[in-house]
Amino acid sequence: MIELSDRLNAMEESATIAMSRKSRELRAEGKDVISLSLGEPDFNTPEFIKDAAVQAMKDNFTMYTPVPGYDDLREVISKKFKRDNGLNYDVNQIVVSTGAKQSLANVVLSVINNGDEVIIPAPYWVSYIEIVKVSEGIPVIVNAGIENDFKITPSQLEAAITPKTKMMMFSTPCNPTGSVYSTEELRGLADVIKKHPKLIVISDEIYEHINFTSKHSSLAQFDDVYEQIVTVNGVSKAWSMTGWRLGYIGASKQIADACTKVQGQFTSGTCSITQKAAIAAIAADPEVLKDMIAAFKSRRSLVLDALAKIEGVKANVPEGAFYVFPDVSYFIGKSINGKIMISGSDLCMYLLEHAQVALVTGEAFGDSNCIRISYAASKETLNEAMSRIKIALEKLK
Ligand code: PMP
Ligand code: GLU
Q1: Any bridge partners for residue 118, and if so which?
Q2: How many domains does the chain contain in total?
Q3: Are residues 233 and 373 in the same domain?
Q4: 69 and 218 within one domain
């Protein structure tokens, strides 16, 4: 029997990935499972991006790349930050990685020492906690409930800061809630952040373009906190490039250099062909995404309308990303055939087994009253899934 490290043994498997694996296995057994578990656009990567990748191969961009990414890609990212977010990041402040997941891990590994506290507003994206734990940091959870649209307030942030606080990490638009922080709300958080100059904040903006109401607002736009913010983004969500694996950061030069050092030992630069394809994506006018965004918006309405017809379900209106995170606590304590639903996880298992719809339990995101529905699926699929969920939930007494 191999003895694995304590570090590994303390790590949870990613719940999003576990649930999508489970639904793939059930499908392979012939079960008609609808998976709304993985946060992955169901659109194909646009042709002009694939063409750029083909051209890159033909042009023999097939060798190791500079660790922080090709210069021409970093140029394009620098221009994108200016164009879309009003942010000034020079090329040497940008590090390209193998997915935004690696970008997050690089930053946390670069900054966190054993015992440092990392404030994570809940609901949070699953991997934040595990990345912090593996870096020997201590996650400090600040709960933002559905009544506050799942967003934390400046006073909640202030109250969570101790002499051991080193970092905060959050996403806007948020996975799993779809909540979007407005410019005023970010300004409120910045007022607290600037009082603590040693605090580093990761602002994960990977869903930036999937925003249904307002223009996306970046935390680093405020000059008085700019140096403290690490802006994370990537091509997976907006450009339907989840399998290509490319994320990036804009940060102070010191953090960018640190991330390059970490990455130089772990993975080196990300795939050369992906980088050339990403140049085409990131240089493109985000206007070309408008049909996809409209499709997500109308699917959001479909899911919200269907949830409104199920007694006991409470949902806020998510302003971005492609998730709804309804509160299903009404069903906790109810039962079927003697099996009591003790938690959101029980409900998810019940929905998987009896309705054959795969969702992700809110427990994985730090709110056990909720479940996450990813609506990155066709309307036909969503209609069928929502009708199955309604029938199954109404059987619980
Ligand atoms: N941050 C958030 C909030 C996400 O939902 C995801 C999705 N996987 C990521 C980061 C990582 O994205 P990727 O590694 O595919 O670039
Ligand atoms: N971010 C997506 C999700 O939350 C993809 C899965 C993952 O990378 O964990 O479902």
Answers
A1: 139, 167
A2: 2
A3: no
A4: yes
Pocket test for ligand 2, best of 21, 40, 324 (most atoms within 8 A of CB): 40
- Domain interval for residue 303: 6-44+289-394
Q: Which ligand is nearest to the CA of 174?
A: 1
Residues 233 and 269 in one domain: yes
Task: Give distance in angstroms: CA of 39 to centre of ligand 2.
Answer: 5
pLDDT value, residue 18:
83
Q: Is the CB of 206 under 6 A from ligand 1?
A: yes
CA of 143 to the centre of ligand 1 (A): 21
**Per-residue model confidence (pLDDT) at position 67:** 98
Give the position, in ligand 1's atom list, of the atom nearest the Cα of 98.
Answer: 14
pLDDT at 3 over 90: yes
How distant, in Å, are the alpha carbons of 49, 63, 66 from that of 59? 15, 11, 17
Find residue 117's DSSP bridge partners: 138, 165
pLDDT at 158 over 90: yes
For the Cβ of 17 lying below 6 angstroms from any atom of ligand 2, the answer is yes
Q: How far apart are CA 250 and CA 197, in angstroms?
A: 18
Q: Is 18 in the pocket of ligand 2 (CB under 6 A)?
A: no
One-letter amino acid at 121 equals: P
Q: What is the pLDDT of residue 23?
A: 87
Res. 177 pLDDT band, cuts 50 70 90: very high
394 backbone dihedrals φ, ψ, rounded to 5°: -70, -15
- Same domain for 143 and 38, yes or no, is no
Q: What is the DSSP letter of 56?
A: H
Task: Please report whether residue 1 resides in a domain.
Answer: no
Can you say how many angstroms the Cα of residue 139 is from the centroid of all Cα atoms in its chain? 17
Q: Is the CB of 345 under 6 A from ligand 2?
A: no
Distance CA 103, CA 153 (A): 26
φ and ψ at residue 167, rounded to 5 degrees: -150, 160
Mean pLDDT of 110-129: 97
pTM of the model: 0.96
Residue type, 68: P
The overall average pLDDT reported for the chain is 96
Helix, strand, coil fractions of the chain, as percent rounded to 5? 45, 15, 40
